[in-house]
Structure formats: C-alpha cells, structure tokens
From TrEMBL, chains A, B:
Cross-referenced PANTHER family: ALANINE AMINOTRANSFERASE, ALANINE TRANSAMINASE
Known partners and oligomeric status: Homodimer.
Keyword Repeat among record annotations: no
Pfam families in alphabetical order: Aminotran_1_2
Alphabetical list of InterPro entries matching this protein: ALAT1/2-like (IPR045088), Aminotransferase_I/II_large (IPR004839), PyrdxlP-dep_Trfase (IPR015424), PyrdxlP-dep_Trfase_major (IPR015421), PyrdxlP-dep_Trfase_small (IPR015422)
Alphabetically ordered keywords of this record: Aminotransferase, Pyridoxal phosphate, Transferase
CDD domains registered for this protein in UniProt: AAT_like
Full protein name: Aminotransferase class I/classII large domain-containing protein
Keyword match Transit peptide: no
Pathway annotation from the record: Photosynthesis; C4 acid pathway
Domain Aminotransferase class I/classII large: 163-243, 244-471
Native species: Brassica napus
Amino acid sequence: MRRFVIGQAKNLIDQTRRRPRPHNNNIRLLSLLASDPIPVSSSRFFSDMTGSDSSSSLPVTLDSINPNVLKCEYAVRGEIVNIAQKLQDDLKINKDAYPFDEIIYCNIGNPQSLSQQPITFFREVLALCSHTALLDRDETHALFSADSIARAWKILDQIPGKATGAYSHSQGIKGLRDAIAAGIEARDGLPADPNDIFMTDGASPGVHMMMQLLISSEKDGILCPIPQYPLYSASIALHGGSLVLSEENQRDIVDFCKKEGLVLLADEVYQENVYVPDKKFHSFKKVARSMGHGEKDISLVSFQSISKGYYGECGKRGGYMEVTGFTSDVREQIYKVASVNLCSNISGQILASLVMSPPKPGDESYESYIAEKEGILSSMARRAKTLEEALNKLEGITCNRAEGAMYLFPCINLPQKAIAAAEAAKTAPDTFYCKRLLNATGIVVVPGSGFRQVPGTWHFRCTILPQEDKIPAIVNRLTEFHKSFMDEFRD
Amino acid sequence: MRRFVIGQAKNLIDQTRRRPRPHNNNIRLLSLLASDPIPVSSSRFFSDMTGSDSSSSLPVTLDSINPNVLKCEYAVRGEIVNIAQKLQDDLKINKDAYPFDEIIYCNIGNPQSLSQQPITFFREVLALCSHTALLDRDETHALFSADSIARAWKILDQIPGKATGAYSHSQGIKGLRDAIAAGIEARDGLPADPNDIFMTDGASPGVHMMMQLLISSEKDGILCPIPQYPLYSASIALHGGSLVLSEENQRDIVDFCKKEGLVLLADEVYQENVYVPDKKFHSFKKVARSMGHGEKDISLVSFQSISKGYYGECGKRGGYMEVTGFTSDVREQIYKVASVNLCSNISGQILASLVMSPPKPGDESYESYIAEKEGILSSMARRAKTLEEALNKLEGITCNRAEGAMYLFPCINLPQKAIAAAEAAKTAPDTFYCKRLLNATGIVVVPGSGFRQVPGTWHFRCTILPQEDKIPAIVNRLTEFHKSFMDEFRD
C-alpha cells in the first residue's frame, strides 16, 4: 500500500512537472496534511503551478499573500504595543535609560496580566477536572472546597467517559450547555435552549465563525456603530435598559433589524461589568422577546466570553454564542463551520459553564466567591472613577463616565502645533500623542484612529485595569506628561 | 458622552433608513461588537442595505450564505457520525431495539474518548498551573510528584506575573516556546529558534492561519497527495527516512518544492506514532537542511499537535507551527493573523511545551512516564496489527500494514450488486457500506469518498483506538457483518 501511496505522490509530482505554467498565480503550496482534513484544502484540488518569483528565492512575498490580510488592522496589538514590548525588553538591561521602571499595559482588557487574581472556586474546579485522580484522594478534601469537588464530579459525569482530554461535541459538551442555558434563563427570565449554544474559544472565534458564514462577497453589508468600538457598543449593550433612553435605543435597534431584515450580532461580554448599582444588564434577546419578536421574527446571535466580566479568564479562551432565529438548514451550516475545528478547548468550556452557574447561597464557597467578585467589581468601579476624574482635569481632555466595561475613551483636543508635528512625523495625531505618552511614562494606550473615531476628533483607549495601588502613580505620570506635552505644543 | 454615542447610533440608523436599496446584496448584518475589534468587521464599513428576502421572515437563507461554507465537507464529522449520535441517544431508551449495546467511534483520532488515560505527569503540571494556590500547600507534596511541582514553578516563572489566566504573547509564552525549540533541537540535532514557533489551539487552526495568509484568490494552487488523506500523507511524513525509498521520497518532495518555488506545509503531528522499532521519524526540516537547503532556500511550515502522539490530549486544543524560510515582512503578516485571536489557550500552550520536554531520566516521574507512554504505543501497535490482519482475512478487502499514525484505510472490492443498491439509494457505494456497518454493529467508520480516494476504488477509514479488550468483539462484529453483506450482494 505504501508503494501505492508513494506512486501517487510521484505521479502527482511528474504530472505537475509536465504541466504548462500560467502566469496569473502567485502562491505555491504543497501541503502534506496528516491530521484531520482541512476544508480549505480538501474542498478542492488545484494542480496548476507557476514558476517562483524570480526576484526572490523564497516563494512568498507581500504582493502574493491574501490582500485582506494586508488590509486587516488590529490596533490593540498594533505598533504602540510592539514599541512597548521592545521597551520592556530593553528595561531589563538598561534600567536607568528610562524615566519609568515598568511598562503598564492599558491597551487591552487583560486583567490577570495586571495582577487581578482568578476566582478561587473556578480554578479549584478546573484543577480537579485537569487531574481527575485528585478526586480519589483523601488529601484533596483538605485542599479543595466541598462544592468545588462536588461540581467537578458533576461536570465529569456530564462528559462521556469523564474524558476531559477528548474532543467534545462540536457545539460543546451537552451537560455544560445545559448549565449555560439554565444560567441564561435565570438571567433573562426567558427559556433558553442548550441546542442554541455554540461554545467557542472566546468571543472572537465565534464572531469570526458567524462572519465567515454570513459574508458571501464584498457586496455584503456589515453595519456597526461608528466609531465601531468596544466602549461605545459596550455602552449601548450594557446601558440598554439602564435609562429609558437606552432601552429605547435597544428597542430602536431591534425594530431596525426587524424592519430591515438584519442579523443582529450582539456582543454581550460585558454583561457582568456594570458598576452602577441601580443599573442592570438587559440582553438583546430579552428586549426583542419583550417586544414580541420570537424565533421566527429576528435572527439574533449573542456572544459571551470568560475573558471579561469580573473573572477575566482571558488566557483560558472560553465563551459561547447563543444562536436564535435561524432556519434549521442554516443552523446545520453553522454546525458544520463549528465542526471544522472539532471543538473549543474543554477547560474553556468548563469555565464558561462555571461563570454562568457560580456558587449559590449555602454552598461552602459562596461567601468567599461573592467577596472575591464584589471586591474586583467595586475596585474596577473606583479605578474607573479615579481615572475618569483625573483625565477630565487635564487641559483639552474630556472623558465620559465609565458605568460599565473596562475602558475609558477620552477625547483629546490637540493643538494645531501637535497636529502639524504629527504630520511632519508622518503619523496620526492621536498615535503621535500615544507614542509620546509611552516613551515618557511607560503607559501603553491605544490611539482612537484604530477604532474609526469620528474624523477630526482624537481619542485614546485606556483600560481601567491597573491594580488600585498603582492608579495614583499612573495619574501623576499621565498628568505630568500631558502638561509638558501641552506646554510644548500649545498654540 | 453616552448621549454622543447614542446620537451616533441614531444617525447611523436614520442615514441607513434614507439610503436607496440596491438589489445585489444578500446578507444583512448589524454587529454590536463589544469585545476587541474583529478585523473582518473593522477593516471596512459597509452601509448599503437591502430589503429582506420576501420569501422568508428571517434574513438568512442557504442561498445567501458564503458559498464556500456550503462547498466545504468534513467527513470525519459528517452524515455517518450524525446517524451514530442519534443511534446513541436512542440506545439509552430503546436498549433492545438494536443488535449492539454501544456505539464504537472509529471515525476520528480521539483516544481519550475511548478510555485512553492521560499521561499523569502532564495532568499534574496542568492542575498545579490551573490552581497555583496548591503550590503553597504542604498537602500538595503528598498528591503530586516532586518534578511536576518543580515543572509547574518553572512554567509559572516563565509567565509574566505567573498569570495563567492572562492573554499571552500572540505567538505563545516565550519561555514555553524556548522549551519547544529545545525539544525540536534535541529531536533533529539542528538549531531551532523560539521566534519561529507560533503556538496554536491544535494543528487545524495553524493550518487555517497559513491558508488564510497564503490563499489570495481562486487562482492559487494547493497541491496535495491524492487522495489527500491523513493516512497517506501521514505515511509519507512518518515513514520518511524509515526506508530508503521513503527518504528518497521526502527528498523528492523537498527538491520539487525548491524547484517549483512551493511552500511546504508539513503536518508532522504523528511524529510519536511510529510502531516499528527500527524506524524513526525524520522531520522535513531535517531532511531539507541535510540537503543543504537553508532558511533562504525553502519555505517550510511544520505543524505539531498535542491531540495525537501517545498523549492524545485532543480536548485541550494545543499545538504549534514552526515557520521557517519566510521574509521578515511576511513573518509580520503571519504574526498579525496570529494576533487577531490574541493567543491560543494557555493550558494547551503548557501541554505543548510538556510533550516537547517530558520527564528525563532521574526525574521522579520518569519511570512511570515511560511506562505509560510505552504502554499506550505498544498497545496501539498490537491493535493496529490485529485489526489489519482481521480485515485482510475478509473477502474483497485489502488493508495495508499501519506502521504509524492511528488509522487503517482498507480498500473494499464491492460487488456490482452492492454498487447498484447504493446507486438506487442515491448514496456512494462506500457510504452505503459504512451505513450498513453502523446499523448492524454500532461501529462508526468514515467512507473513503470523504477523502478523495482514487475514482472507482472504495475504502473506509477506521481508527485503531478502541481499547484492547474491545478489539476481539469488534473483529467478530466486523467479520460477521461483512460476511452477511457479501452474501446479500455477491454477484
């Protein structure tokens, strides 16, 4: 049989050698894929090959790769962050070369990288599910809470063969989806179907999945609030129902989607990050249903992630999407897309089920769980307030109050001189400001240009996540820098 | 500021309402994305919208989704598996309705779903990294091996802030990539650069990443061994260097790629699954370098996964790709694609580093680690042999010896009557056979048609992974079924 296989490969090579070479190709790929078939390669077989680009001995150039990749921008991990990483490396060797002793990453919602501690109960369950032999040992009872042990058993009983190392159903382990659906029901006071839950490695892969399914050509439309930006859309989603105005706004959006026949992709990952006691998260599904729009009326996808909330388990890559209002044949296609990567990682699946079904009153972990949760959320609220007030004190800066999410998005009224200096440096004025800020203070923020801000306005995004004891120093460094920046460029 | 935001959203809605509707669109999407920007949506803003398909109150139909998604086939999780899952559910309630009492999944390389136990050392380290508070407790020393505790500390020291819950560098945690590079160096006897390592959630996402980067249009060519199929390509990769013939074949492929200017994507996930003592895995990088082709001569991507090997940690979704022979500007684009999903899951990253740096002689876990590893691999070898011999005894079936990987791919010489019956049932003859097999025995295999077998030949793929004590029963059921099938259709 091997002879046959190699015969095949040889024939393939020979045939290809004999084939004439068109000149309109630019990528040449030989893939020897030994793992499960990859659709993009298995879906068709191209045999027309071309000679390599004579200008280089290597086949791939920027001109030959997918132009969409070149177009794509990802500001939160863009130029400024690369500079910051280089600075951080250099700091280790040249401590005295800089006016700061550490890089503070305020560019991305990554709380545990800034010393936020994980929720103990979640990690206890995760450890027990990672090494199930622990469950048979007496010493374990001294190390783990009774309810984390009970929960680990419950989860293992829901996994065929208790195999946390096996691929699961492509939508995720059924028992975990049951727990998530129950959590959604408790949250919304409405039924939720475990079969509508697709578990993902975080919200982003879920969004990619839906985009891949729904975008069939460049003609297809994606309508986003402009600036299409985390904070704004988070604000809309979060504050929905918090003021009449905003609930009206959520209803407007639902109405609009219904009338125009739009699919509503609702990123609801900040549902736990509401810092104003009298305000409450309302899901778009709840709003739509309250308006009488059911399964057959509106196509709605809600994304949730374990990376946000009070838990901030970014590194675990877990989340889910709740998919409602699609025909069964389209649902089958969503399932097929989900199945191409087989399944999301099981640790992330377990955590996603835990955040939607945390300890309950009476459970051994309940008190400490609530203390940890409230401690994180109240601290975030204080940090948001302190930073916002400090920013609003600065000349030419206006910053809205953060009642939710993890970010501030101050608007900077930059002097003409600064804008001119930025132009001279061939960079956007807000990027110019953020680079200056980084080099002077070690604070990493993201220029508003990365988020399609309103033309002619300049912003930066700053997370509220540095630990509380560091906030005063950050405020001082920020204030000092801004003053000297304005002194340098004031018109 | 919120007023401003909602103003924005309202304007957007109003503008859109006023806009004329072209008729060439088919997807309508409103995305309220609160998490980090998704390039596919952030890269452009489409505002032209169309009325909804009048034939349905829901906006999305099969005609309106991405046609590539419709085209894509994924046999290992296809029709047969769906039937099997329904049978499994029905078995719970109608025990006596079937001639078998369980479904045996031989469709996919998912060893732990078939009771293969994980490697203890790997899971000990994973548990300690999942709940790091354990490292401060005395009881832990009674529960964990000394080297797993030491390894956990080492790994935590490599993670900034010891934060296993934080997003990492988009290529993966640097210290873990160092360990992987060291493992590759030990394997190949050649230098490996941690900066060439991109950690992924398994091999598939890595392959998708490269395909997304390299495929710029339908004109681009992907050359695969035909049938492009795990076993064959695995055989080529695995047996490379095991016979002169095959090493020659590997050299042919490298030569061919060099001459034609091809990118060589080498899936090397089965490098540990070699069952023949006198044979050894040789990486394509090693072969290419031994031929004198360096970084500047050949573009080579090697994929590795924690889902295969003797560890079979499919559910943890971990792996890496080693990317060599690309210009720095193209490398930057690969990094950008990697950064779009921020990072692969940290548990998977940790496991990927562990499989490339397992316990060494002298470590407390070494003996038990080797015993577990050898136990799994030798059992796989016995199972492969037993199944292959049993299949070769069956009328009209020829099966090659499996010297590696996890699969058998027997060729069935189907009687004309069976082919006619399949045609009458509007299904491919091998699918017809596999469905009959499933319904008669509960054994799930994948028809060869899913893998582009040579036209006119019929095969099925069967893993060698059912636990050893079940193999005799499987052989009996398979033999019995095949006899009656042939009796029914023999010409």
